[in-house]
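Open question from group meeting: does this chain pack into something compact, or does most of it stay loose? Before anyone orders reagents, we agreed to write out a predicted structure and look at it together. Recording both the input and the output here so the notebook holds the full record.
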Amino acid sequence: MEERIRQRRALYTVLREWLDENNLLEALQVFEDQFQGQPTIAVNDYLTRIAPLYRDQVDAKTLRRNLMQLLVRKSAQLEPDPLPLLQQLRARKESVALEKKGAQPTAEQLALHTLVSTMMRKLPLLQRKQLHAAIAVQLKQHFVNGSYDALARYLLTDNPLHLALFDDRSLRQFFNLIYVAACEVLGPVIADRWFGGCIAQLRETDQVAGDAVNRYL
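Structure tokens returned:
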């Protein structure tokens, strides 16, 4: 795992000098899907595969030399792990795929989305990141495979289309896991105040949506 992260960071550090953000993430996705964990000798095959992304800016020989130099450096000299950027890219692609399939959330699911989205925006950025990490741990314990992925992508994209994949029971469990994670990150007293305040605000500003979320509480 550490070597995989090191390779990904080295690629990100080198390629970001030559590629724009979209092409950079596409190049890293190719690495994740087909080359991660392979010996360094596979660098030639990888650079050949992504050549259409960089061909006009730099040659493969230069990229390979720079990459090999970085792979022997200390981790502190590399850019941070771009995995969060890749996760966001996958989530955006999943959202587009859902739109093409015509997935549509119900009025109740949209109400839940409004509540969850509002709750997240009320938290400072650092606490929001901590809460997302705690929620991810809870999701891994209670949801599997595609269900976990869809809910994780929902939190990444803030796109209610992902909620259309779930029934009421699953979404009640999802909302409860947010509360459990909030108690861990914020403490039970602040978590209760945060939940109660956001629910009360929703009921005041949109009574229909406020009534609709009752099925998930």
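Observations to bring back to the group:
Residues 102-216 form one domain.
The two ends are 39 Å apart (CA to CA).
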